[in-house]
Amino acid sequence: MDKLKRVLSGHDAEEPSGLAEIIDATSLSWGTRVKGFIACFALGCLFSLLGSCLLWVPVKGLLLFAVFYTLGNIASIGSTLFLMGPMEQLKRMFDPTRLIATVVMLLCLILTLCSAFWHKEGLALLFCILQFFALAWYSISFIPYARDAVKKCISVCLS
Q: Where are the annotated coiled coils located (predicted)?
């Protein structure tokens, strides 16, 4: 009945709620999203490359590598927030099919930074290696049947 009253009184469109106004005000255009994705992904690649170059610094090289490599991976993962939006990204990350891959990847990121800041070079290197494999496994979870193909490839290579 309220809708009929609004139509007859000339107020056809519903008044947007406060949440709808906030969403509209904070929404990015597709072009801005793509630019944000490219910038954040490029920054992630730059951090990872910088970390690789800093690996050869004499005293603190391994620790700098671990920190910049991890920051690069975080920025690269964060770049997809621009394409999907934060809530959709979180829904996809914690989807039951990739929940374990997400948790392991996030745990490796955190443990790499912790071991680097606690000056445990061996652990930092170990967690960087684990981080690489965890991020690769997480990334291929977005490709249909890719994890099954990798599992089959590994089983064939090991047998």
A: none
**86 and 55 in contact (C-beta within 8 Å)?**
no
- Could you tell me the residue ranges of all domains in the chain? 31-146
> pLDDT tens digits for 50-78?
998 998 888 888 889 999 999 999 999 99
Backbone angles phi, psi at 26, to 5 degrees: -100, 0
Amino acid identity, position 63: L
CA distances for 132 relative to 28, 74, 88, angstroms: 31, 12, 24
Q: State the Cα–Cα distance between residues 109 and 62, nearest whole angstrom.
A: 15
Q: Give the whole-angstrom CA distance, residue 62 versus residue 45.
A: 18
d(CA 3, CA 119): 65
pTM of the model: 0.74
- Per DSSP, 108 falls in state H
- 133/95 Cα distance (integer angstroms): 19
In whole angstroms, what is the distance from residue 151 CA to residue 159 CA? 12
For residues 148 and 141, the answer to whether their CB atoms sit within 8 Å is no
